[in-house]
Specification:
Layout (H helix, E strand, L loop, with lengths): L4 E4 L7 E8 L3 H12 L4 E4 L7 H5 L4 E2 L4 H5 L6 H11 L6 H21 L5 E2 L13 E3 L5 H15 L2 E3 L3 E7 L5 E7 L5 E11 L8 H7 L7 E2 L8 H9 L3 E2 L4 E8 L4 E2 L3 H4 L3 E3 L13 H9 L5 E7 H7 L3 H9 L2 E4 L2 H8 L3 H17 L19 E13 L2 E2 L6 E3 L5 E7 L19 H23 L1
Parallel strand pairs: 1-8, 2-3, 2-10, 3-7, 10-21, 11-18
Antiparallel strand pairs: 4-6, 5-6, 8-9, 9-10, 12-19, 13-14, 13-18, 15-16, 16-18, 17-18, 20-21
Helix pairs in contact: 1-6, 1-15, 4-5, 5-15, 13-14
Bound molecules: flavin-adenine dinucleotide (FAD).
């Protein structure tokens, strides 16, 4: 990554000086920018693409929030402590517990702030909880899509007077002897570069999932994974952090997904599994506890013949899934198969019929006998899979990486000695996540919790610092 650099300088000629500059126009960047404008401070978001989309626009856009007005109005029994312990338990305790407690406590305020102050049409996702969550706390836009979330954030930014410079890749940070970032250089597609001065800098340029060399080095288990994230996420925040002596952690952590429709690139979301669906290999056999989590299950799918598996479900789970935009797309694209009995389904999808019948029969027996299977999965409370049956061929995917720069409760980047850098912030995929070091620590919502809440906190703190400076 030779084009990404830090230049040491006390002064530099700039074309403009902006109090707060944000690198990256995804969910983190736009939330940070909104929080800066709330304080009536000028902010510039610099985005390499021609539109502000990022991974956030590819996502389902579900943001966890405990204690939001929306959640309280539904009478959901939840607390920040419960949410924090869910996050820590999923990551087997290998998280910055102070930061997790702080993010859980702030999560509801972020939802209220987005809904009340910035007009986002968020509602509570009901009907199922994702693995690891003890309460209904996911909030989403009406279509449950990240593109709708990004559209709403972009329109809120326009209303708030956020300046956005697109088609500009930031490649250089200018840093003085005191460790303050004084300017950035952004290069346009024609090769011309602008140097822009800043009072504070927020890194909102996500992780390194789009940088195959870094993925190979830091997450070798994903060698055969399909990348289904944003190509702009090249690890720039980590490269700058390394040069600046920032503390970095959990670089092996990531959000994987075991339900990417093979050959179609459409994510088939996990309620289909958590509500009683299963995954089988070409022999029709189950191979793991699918309900443990979609991220860790990606590696299990990648271990199967051809690095693929088939998600098997029925009409009842199909109906639950129709609320999701992605699933509607999957239906239109033709990647779902259905049949009135299992042997016909097996024939259609090229899976061993006897194996599939035995796998489904086993789940029926587990439900009836109220037993756990050999992988530790319980089907308690689920209705047995019954005709008509559905199947979709899936592979394991990498969505985004979770490791990054360590930050404090105001999203300030920390040095190796835990002291905060003078005016550098990070959030979302650029910051160390809350998922521990491996795939099994990722709990649904961890991505957008750190994007929206760390983004908001970074923007608030950066704005207050440049005002008092
Ligand atoms: C299919 C899918 C579904 C998901 N669903 C959910 C969900 O429901 N809930 C959840 O919590 N998480 C979900 N996630 C994860 C979530 O989308 C991410 O954690 C989150 O979007 C990260 O936000 P971000 O702002 O850090 O990064 P991004 O949204 O990727 O934004 C980073 C931006 O920075 C830009 N950039 C990078 N480098 C530079 C540079 N040097 N100069 C200028 N610009 C630069 C990029 O072009 C990009 O636009 C999902 C992810 C995927 C792929």
């Amino acid at each position: 990554m030779s084009d990404i650099r830090v230049v040491r300088a006390e002064t530099v000629d700039t074309i403009a000086d902006i109090p707060v500059v944000v690198i990256g126009g995804g969910g983190t960047g736009l939330c940070a920018a909104l929080a800066v404008r709330d304080a009536d401070v000028d902010v510039l978001v610099i985005e390499r693409d021609s539109q502000t989309m990022g991974t956030t626009a590819m996502s389902t856009g579900l943001i966890p929030g405990t204690g939001s007005a929306i959640q309280r109005a539904k009478g959901i029994d939840d607390t920040a402590e419960l949410f924090a312990s869910d996050i820590a338990n999923k990551a087997k305790g290998a998280v910055d517990k102070g930061l997790v407690a702080h993010l859980a406590a702030q999560s509801g305020q972020t939802i209220d702030w987005l809904a009340d102050q910035h007009g986002l049409d968020l509602s509570l996702v009901e009907g199922f909880t994702y693995p690891g969550h003890s309460a209904l706390r996911m909030h989403g836009m009406p279509s449950r899509s990240g593109s709708e979330l990004m559209g709403a954030l972009a329109s809120a930014c326009e209303d708030a007077g956020v300046d956005i410079l697109t088609d500009s890749l930031v490649d250089t940070l200018y840093v003085n002897e005191a460790g303050k970032v004084i300017a950035v250089a952004a290069t346009r597609p024609d090769g011309e570069s602008d140097i822009i001065g800043c009072g504070a800098l927020i890194l909102a340029c996500c992780g390194f999932a789009g940088n195959q060399a870094m993925v190979n080095e830091l997450i070798p288990e994903l060698e055969h994974a399909t990348f289904h994230g944003h190509p702009g996420n090249k690890g720039h925040a980590i490269a700058w952090g390394r040069e600046l002596g920032a503390a970095l952690a959990d670089l092996s952590a990531y959000q994987g997904h075991a339900g990417l429709a093979a050959g179609y690139g459409i994510p088939i979301l996990w309620p289909l599994i958590t509500e009683g669906g299963i995954q089988v290999n070409r022999q029709g056999q189950r191979f793991s506890n699918e309900a443990a989590g979609y991220s860790e299950q990606a590696v299990e799918v990648l271990r199967q013949e051809g690095h693929v598996a088939w998600s098997i479900f029925d009409e009842a789970r199909h109906q639950i899934m129709t609320q999701f935009d992605d699933y509607q797309q999957a239906m239109s694209a033709g990647c779902l198969h259905s049949a009135s009995n299992l042997s016909e389904l097996a024939q259609k999808i090229g899976v061993d019929g006897e194996g599939l019948a035995a796998s489904v029969a086993e789940t029926h027996a587990l439900i009836e006998n109220e037993e756990r299977d050999r992988f530790g999965r319980s089907f308690a409370g689920k209705s047995p899979l019954s005709a008509p049956f559905y199947a979709v061929k899936v592979t394991g995917a990498l969505f985004h990486t979770q490791g990054g720069l360590e930050v404090d409760e105001n999203a300030r980047v920390l040095r190796a000695d835990r002291s905060p850098m003078p005016n550098l912030y990070a959030g979302g995929g650029a910051a160390r996540g809350i998922s521990g070091p491996g795939a099994d620590g990722y709990m649904a919502g961890n991505g957008l919790l750190t994007a929206t809440t760390l983004g908001r906190l970074a923007g608030q703190h950066a704005a207050s610092c440049v005002v008092t400076a």
